[in-house]
Amino acid sequence: AINNGNTLRVASPASNITSELADIDWDNLGFGFMPTDYMYVMKCSQGENFSKGELQRFGNIELSPSAGILNYGQGLFEGLKAYRKHDGNILLFRPEENAMRLKMGAERMCMPSPSVEQFVEAVKATVLANERWIPPSGKGSLYIRPLLMGSGAVLGLAPAPEYTFLIYVSPVGNYFKEGLAPINLVVETEMHRATPGGTGGVKTVGNYAAVLKAQSAAKAKGYSDVLYLDSVQKRYLEEVSSCNVFIVKGNLIVTPAIKGTILPGITRKSIIDVALSQGFEVEERLVSVDELLDADEVFCTGTAVVVSPVGSITRQGKRVTYGNNGVGLVSQQLYSALTSLQMGLTEDRMGWIVEL
Ligand code: COI
After folding, report:
1. Which of 38, 143, 219, 251 lies most in the core, judged by the most C-beta atoms within 10 Å?
2. Distance of CA 101 to the CA centre of its chain
């Protein structure tokens, strides 16, 4: 039968799911939204636990105009990826870590959250139902986007009376338009991403709306993204709009410590362990913006960006370059080590891979 990517011969979810690859241009995936076949939906009331979710055909959802997420930003998201291994098996990377981070964030945002087991099972079900959208080995990955939101109606400021946990997926390639080539960052001096005691350390949706203005201004000037400084001393590195940051000095790798204003990235944490296992010294501490001046390499990490080498950083008009217009050796080495693991090309000694 001909499958044009828009039609799927399905009567009910979980039955009759075709595993033929979707008919799209697998060689030119960027990081853009592409609708797939199914999404996972699970609801619960405030004060109760999530219990029974289901796969539904992917589509728009209905929300009250008074929903907590729409009015007061009561929402969190997650991001993880599924890879198709060369032998056809499907691999997830540390999904329990996303589940645990969502739980921590839910606590901060006054929301109930699915258990780690519910989260991981829901991710697996959603990936399997959308199997034909997982790129062929080596061409990208299936980005998995769990959402947790206050879906019930509120008017006065309060936690919403109902919550929805939803997972959708989209096939993706490289995040930055530069592909794997080094990106160019600009240090933001006016705006800040997070403040002590705020929500910078959890993956709440508002953190990402808050960086759009600086990001758009930077892009309009030709930069790839923005590097934020702490909001108190305006001197220490925090993170980039959508990823964590690392600097390399010889055998030493340094990254800002997690202290409430920085998103605890799962790729960040994994790269620290990979670097340690390869004999690098790693420090998590305050990193002064001046340390950018004598770094050998700078790179960013995130689920979406993976490991992205930084080619230059501009601060108050002064530009420092890294890697001689190429990818730095350490960035390249860590990128290869991480992606080989994620794609199942090297043995998983860390116990990070979940094979479906
Ligand atoms: C991710 O890396 O998965 C993120 O959540 C960043 C997002 C802004 C694309």
Report:
1. 38
2. 12
Centroid of ligand 1 to alpha carbon of 99 (angstroms): 15
Confidence at residue 320, expressed as pLDDT on a 0 to 100 scale? 97
pLDDT digits (tens, 9 = 90+) for 268-310: 999 999 999 999 999 999 999 999 999 999 999 999 999 999 9
**E strand or H helix at 354, and its extent?**
strand 353-355
CA-based end-to-end distance of the chain: 27
Q: Are 133 and 37 in contact (CB under 8 A)?
A: yes
301 lines ligand 1 (CB under 6 A): no
CB-based burial label for 16 (10 Å; 0-12, 13-18, 19+): exposed
Smallest CA-to-CA distance from 238 within 302, 289, 281 is with 289
139 is annotated as an active-site residue: no
d(Cα 270, Cα 324) in Å, to the nearest integer?
27
Specify the pTM. 0.93
Neighbouring residues of 356: CB distance < 8 A, sequence distance ≥ 6? 82, 89, 90, 91, 92, 124, 127, 128
Please tell me the predicted confidence (pLDDT) of residue 108.
Answer: 98
Mutate to test the pocket of ligand 1, among 123, 242, 262, 268 (most ligand atoms within 8 A of CB): 242
Residues of the chain with pLDDT under 50: 1-16
Q: How far is the C-alpha of 105 from the C-alpha of 112, rounded, in Å? A: 10
ipTM given for this complex: 0.97
Cβ(60)–Cβ(188) below 8 Å: no
Beta carbons of 84 and 90 less than 8 angstroms apart:
yes
Q: Looking at the chain, how many residues does it have? A: 356
The DSSP bridge partners found for residue 43 are 164
Between CA 130 and CA 17 the distance in angstroms is: 8
